[in-house]
Amino acid sequence: MPFYKVVFQYNQHQRGFSETFYRSGSSIQAASSIDNDLIGAALQMRGNNTILKTIRISEVSNNRRSVPIEKNQIASNIFIPDIVSSAALVRLIGVEPPASRNLWLRGLKDFETRRQYITGVDEPDGNLITAIREYMQLLAVNGFMIQSLVPMGVDPFLYRIIDNVTAVGNSGYIQVNTTAPFTLSASQRVIISQANQKDFPGLQGAFQAYAITPTSFKIQYNYHQSGVYPLKTGRFRPQQYQYSPIVASLSTFKRFTSRDTGRAFGVGRGHRSGRKIRSL
Question: Could you list the residue range(s) of the whole structural domain that residue 120 is in?
């Protein structure tokens, strides 16, 4: 079955944050069915006036095909002002296939924290820890997954050394050449690393591959911004992801801190927040 990206988008005090997961399903409509108990668990640990603004589901293979589900559900109307953006770092674990991911749970209740007087560190109390664990359990029960890069092993996931790159006229593309044959599917992405950034700035990270042959492919890159020296170092590998269901019994709470948030969802460009969240 195809995989879908599920993004929970929150607003809190004119600021915004999100959490990203993955699901499999027979269709985007099936993946869009979100259990109300999961939404309730996501909101019960959030601070005052935190709003679950939207849940957006999109196809992994075609992110232009997406379905936004407007929720506008508020976490709490209790008038206890949150003065910081409390956040917990949890580690989500999957077994089949093996995968792990660190996730920040932002916008948590400040009044359910306590300060260690010896260390001066704020920690969540028992109620907040219980709410976090319940949230992870419901993510697992509802078939939510984490995404990870396919680990290196046998071909085609081993790195290939780049022999050289050549400009493709003035098209804004370069051709990447290697003597070791490799396997790429049409329009697959590749990860390039170890290229000299002084001579080839920006030639690193993920690129879409075009015009693929057994020993070359093209990517979008402005060759004229490179230095006068030929590429002497560099390697690439296919970028391919795997998806692993979350296992709640293995997933753990790691630590508690404050974490800043970004621009609120549903707010136009140029908007300036009227409130800055301070750190502990």
Answer: 3-149+243-263
